[in-house]
Amino acid sequence: EVNVASKPQTQASRYTGEIEEEFNPEQRKLLSFKVEGDYLLVKPIQFLSGEWEDINEVVRSLGGKWVKGDIISYWAIPLPQQG
Description:
Helices cover 31% and strands 24% of the residues. By secondary structure, the protein is an alpha+beta fold. Strands 1-2-4-3 form a 4-stranded antiparallel sheet. The chain is globular, with a radius of gyration of 13 Å. The termini are far apart.
């Protein structure tokens, strides 16, 4: 596990905060957020039943999509490109 807090604040971290704000506090408690490359990965930290659909709607409104993995599935939201 990489300790993200020890890294200097990057341009991307500004966007991650804005993206996280799109989710309501109840939803944020169920999710972990991690920047990887040009994407913000949003992973459920517990099984989502009824909440999945609402969270998926928020992700899609941000241009993201559900990525189904063999072990771990998650949402990937593209970060705005600087420049």
